[in-house]
Write a structure and sequence with these properties.
heterodimer; A: 199 residues; alpha+beta; N-terminal domain of TfIIb; 2 domains; three-stranded mixed beta sheet; B: 812 residues; alpha/beta; five-stranded parallel beta sheet; 33 strands; 23% helix
Chain lengths: 199, 812
């Protein structure tokens, strides 16, 4: 039996489309459902799985990332498919219209791939090497901190604060990244330090 | 969340107010569906729009945005008037019986101690009366005129069903229907859960919105029980974690506070953090504050933090204002007082109010550093996109450095969900191009700064050069090392003071819980509430056993929940005064005569006798608080305050504009529409769509196809009045800016009658900008006012005033 055709026919007769159906909400529109029938055995046999968590809201649905190439063996890994993790107690394998399209955010055309600089007054970004970018940033921080650091307030109390530089931290990074960020930022005396939770 | 996503299945009644879970948290909302299907639970939705959650609700009522407190205090008033109170719970587990000091009063929208000029209170009278025994005075009969219960009763009396209708625009019979449904949950065997999100937080009185519901849940006996609780549906995947770890202007990790400059030395700082119990026998767990603080400082500064230098207290910056929050920083930027700004995975040009002001601020920076996996509007604020971003590129002298970072699929570590579960994840793909992890970038910046300070000296190098950075590869600290550091470890062997032969801690070993944290410098731990997440038994966050004995929804062996792997906090309150479950069919923990046992980790000392120790162990009272003392800036009880921009004056306090203690910068006052301003007659609100996540998914082709273009949503009545056609272009403008969008004319929004006046609602989804795969559009923050919540400065995105007219669309 032609699996693709029968699946398509089934979906069509049941009136399921990407926008309106339960299946649609889980990311399986007509075409997807057909492809899924092929992909299932293919991706289990030919790809490496990684357990991960959806990057969007705090429901934190479990996901499985399927890749060609194994990071654990030091190989390059190319993500070919992402789906809900059926073992996960919260989402039990389901995903919303955002979660179902996760692979396309990982592979978005607007992902950044190299450090860039926009010079004062310029109308474009230009490439810059990592080292040069980081040197520039650290130098700018040190110069600004040295020039504007407030060691004591007007009453002579030690306050050791730095107000002319600020840092907005992400809210989809890991706890571990957050702690590394906390240590580095707080150690400078910066107070204009916040994260998305402020919104 | 006090509870968890999977616990929602245990409820009898869900109220979604201040959120739209079916739209914004679809896979979590499925637990509402489970509760409805399997328990016969009911769903109430209260919202200005008949939204996606409302479409599957058992009962829906409209409400004007910004009037939630009147509704909530109206419910409390109704419950008191109709004896729908779980009395045993309220008397024993809340501070209803506590007597408030003489001199405390409330009148015309203000509490005692208001200073109009400072827009602040002297809060000294907002406290309990303390008896000769040093404890708070209580009157268990609730007869004392100044006991919290009687003050509350008096305070909410004005919020009658008629008053609720007048302020909120909610028809009285709808309000009463909801009150009756909710009142049933005062039974010890019925429970309600509150699911809320930014619809409550994004107001100038957002914190008090949430308090209003928390108070209602307390008098119904719904806190600490299965299927109950206050459940904040948090936004981004790790916004809970970043809050826990204290990446906020005024915080240290684990909800400790950064010192203020009045706390000139450590002795002064710690002297106000004794948390002496306010009633006999109470645990007052914050008495351990010093242990958490010292262990944090040891984690930050290692050997450089000693008893002699007060654990490097001077290394911490001291605040002169409550917060250098984002609004304050953009105000400072606009005044030319900020030179450098970092945005790590954050797009403030879209995410904060009054976009024109934000762009002006960014233009005055010397350098803007972007760390992001994706292109953002903030990184390109200098780029001209016609009406969508009319920047004068050549005149903007800000240097922008944009660094490519990895995303979730390429890194390893833990994220904290709304239910406080720390879930570990593993990378699946290689980063694109030269993208690097944020941790590597932060390490690079730190190592460079450290090197420069060592070589050149400079302003107070000590906290930088002495920062504990003892990672195997200092260039790239590993997630495992950082996670272990937050959990905490013993720095030296520690022996029992009563038995020096008994070793209680072994040097270098991971701590199994925060109970082992010490205040003498012998333990280090970056974030005390995460203690137990990576112990000698390994990475608890990576646990994947999804067994759930007796289907309680606890999943104790799945990942790790802070604190102490506890899934429902305050769970001691799920049992009565004798330690027996209020509802035997929903047992959580119980007292077996010698100890607490059950399905969850008890939120009380395992051997604390039921009659002795109250369930709210973090509070010195041992109880939940109906009266919050002086802990919030805008009052010990919530009060209905109008939004800063409002169609009507405050009915209960006509002289009070907005929240009377919310901070407003001088220039921003001028950019608020007057109350009832005929130039801005319509009540605007902002919200999300299920197909999009903030400003990220417009970078995703699939989501951009599903929702390609910006729209605004208005009622059929308003459309008729203004000659706006379905699908036609409209211009919407506030005192701060204008947007063009397609009109969605809908029955989902109806005009409301507020204080006798017709009020039309204009809904503005937030997701568009000038970057990405979707069509260019205008973010909602073009319109919104630059003012935040009085306690935590979350912007008032949900209630503002606009005008609208048919248009021919934007001219690019």
């Amino acid at each position: 039996m032609n699996m693709e055709l029968s699946r398509r026919a089934f979906l069509r007769t049941s009136g399921a489309g990407l926008a309106g159906s339960t299946l649609g909400a889980f990311g399986f529109g007509e075409a997807e459902a057909a492809v899924a029938a092929y992909v299932k055995p293919f991706h289990l046999a030919n790809t490496v799985e990684a357990r991960n968590t959806c990057t969007y809201c705090s429901v934190a649905c479990g996901i499985i990332i399927f890749s060609k190439g194994d990071l654990r063996k030091g190989e390059k890994a190319d993500i070919v498919h992402i789906e809900g993790d059926a073992d996960h107690p919260t989402n039990r394998g389901t995903l919303c219209p955002k979660g179902a399209a996760l692979k396309d955010i990982v592979k978005s055309e607007t992902r950044l791939t190299q450090p860039m600089v926009r010079k004062p007054g310029s109308d474009k970004f230009e490439p810059i090497a990592w080292d040069a970018a980081l040197d520039k940033i650290a130098r700018a921080m040190k110069d600004d901190r040295d020039a504007n650091f407030i060691a004591k307030n007007k009453d002579g109390v030690t306050v050791n604060r730095w107000l002319t530089t600020g840092f907005l931290a992400a809210s989809a990074t890991t706890n571990e990244t957050a702690f590394a960020t906390y240590k580095v930022v707080r150690s400078t005396g910066m107070l204009g330090f916040d994260n998305q939770a402020r919104v | 969340m006090t509870n968890s996503w999977t616990d929602i299945r245990n409820t009898d009644l869900v109220i979604i107010m201040g959120g739209n879970a079916a739209e914004a948290h679809p896979c979590g909302f499925k637990w509402v569906t489970e509760a409805k299907a399997n328990r016969g639970a009911k769903l109430i939705v209260v919202d200005p729009r008949f939204n996606r959650s409302a479409s599957v609700a058992d009962y829906y009522a409209p409400i004007r945005q910004g009037s939630d407190i009147a509704f909530l205090l109206g419910l409390i008033n109704w419950c008191i008037q109709h004896d729908k109170v779980q009395w045993a719970y309220t008397k024993a587990f809340t501070n209803a019986s506590f007597v408030v000091k003489e001199g405390f009063a409330y009148q015309d929208g203000l509490f005692t101690g208001y200073d109009e000029e400072k827009r602040d209170y002297n809060r000294d009278s907002w406290e309990y009366e303390i008896g000769p025994d040093g404890y708070a005075v209580v009157d268990e009969t609730l007869q004392h005129p100044r006991c919290v219960w009687n003050l509350l009763k008096q305070h909410v009396a004005v919020y009658t069903p008629e008053m609720v209708e007048r302020i909120c625009g909610t028809p009285k019979e709808k309000f009463l229907h909801i009150a009756e449904m909710i009142g049933e949950c005062s039974s010890p065997t019925k429970t309600m859960t509150s699911m809320y999100a930014l619809g409550w937080t994004q107001h100038s009185k957002g914190s008090q919105n949430i308090r209003g519901m928390a108070m209602l849940q307390l008098i119904l006996g719904n806190i600490g029980v299965r299927g109950g609780g206050m459940n904040a549906l948090r936004g981004h995947s790790n916004i809970q974690g970043l809050t826990d770890i204290g990446l906020l202007s005024n915080m240290l990790p684990g909800y400790l506070n950064l010192p203020i400059e009045k706390e000139a030395d450590f002795a002064t700082y710690i002297s106000t953090r004794g948390f002496k119990p306010l009633r006999p026998n109470q645990m007052s767990y914050w008495q351990n504050y010093k242990k958490f603080f010292v262990s944090f400082m040891k984690s930050m500064y290692g050997d450089a933090a000693t008893a002699q230098n007060d654990w490097a207290y001077d290394y911490l910056p001291k605040l002169d204002v409550p917060n250098y929050d984002i609004l304050r920083m953009f105000e400072r930027m606009k005044k030319g007082e900020v030179n450098l700004y970092f945005c790590q995975g954050f797009n403030p040009l879209q995410a904060f109010p009054n976009r024109a002001k934000l762009a002006e601020g960014l233009s005055k920076l010397k350098m803007l550093v972007i760390m992001d996996p994706l292109q953002t509007e903030t990184a390109r604020f200098w780029e001209n996109h016609g009406v969508f971003n009319n920047a004068n590129t050549a005149s903007i002298k800000t240097e922008v450095i944009q660094l490519p970072t990895t995303c979730f699929a390429e890194d390893e570590g833990s994220l904290v969900n709304s239910g406080r579960w720390l879930q570990w994840h593993w990378p699946g793909g290689s980063p694109p191009g030269e993208a690097r992890t944020d941790a590597w970038i932060m390490a690079q910046i730190h190592l460079r700064l450290k090197e420069m300070y060592r070589k050149e000296g400079g302003a107070f190098p000590d906290p930088i050069v002495n920062l504990n950075w003892s990672y195997k590869n200092p260039e790239d600290p590993s997630p495992e090392e950082l996670a272990k550091e937050m959990n905490g470890s013993a720095l030296v062997d520690v022996f029992d003071p009563n038995d020096p032969t008994k070793k209680i801690l072994e040097a270098g070993k991971q701590l199994s819980g925060f109970g082992l944290y010490r205040d003498d410098g012998t333990t280090a731990g970056g974030c005390w509430i995460y203690a137990g997440s990576w112990t000698e038994a390994g990475n608890m966050m990576a646990r994947r056993d999804n067994s759930d004995p007796d289907d309680t929804g606890a999943y104790l062996k799945w990942s790790f929940a802070w604190p102490a792997n506890r899934r429902i906090i305050y769970n001691r309150a799920s049992a009565d005064l004798d330690g027996k479950p209020w509802d035997p069919s929903r047992k959580l923990i119980e007292w077996d005569g010698t100890k607490w046992t059950g399905y969850d980790v008890p939120d009380i000392a395992p051997n604390a006798k039921p009659g002795d120790v109250g369930p709210f162990i973090m509070n010195p009272e041992g109880t939940g608080r109906l009266f919050v003392r002086k802990m919030m800036r805008d009052g010990p009880f919530p009060v209905h305050y109008e939004p800063f921009e409002s169609p009507v004056a405050n009915v209960i306090a006509p002289k009070v504009r907005g929240n009377p203690v919310a901070r407003v910068f001088a220039d921003d006052w001028k950019q608020f529409a007057d109350i009832g301003d005929p130039n801005f007659p319509y009540a605007g609100t902002s919200y999300r769509l299920t197909e999009h996540f903030h400003y990220w998914t417009k970078n995703n082709h699939v989501n951009s196809v599903l929702q390609p273009q910006q729209f605004v949503e208005i009622s059929e009545e308003l459309a008729r009045e203004k000659g706006i056609v379905k699908g036609g272009w409209v211009r919407v403008w506030s005192k701060r800016g204008e947007i063009f969008a397609i009109a969605v004319v809908t029955k989902r929004i109806k005009p409301l009658t507020v204080d006798g006046k017709t009020v039309h609602v204009v809904g503005v989804p937030i997701h568009w900008g000038f970057v990405g795969a979707a069509r260019k559009g205008f973010p909602a923050n073009v319109l919104t006012p630059f003012v935040g919540d009085a306690n935590i400065e979350t912007p008032e995105f949900k209630a503002f005033m606009v005008n609208i007219e048919p248009s021919t669309g934007p001219v690019a």
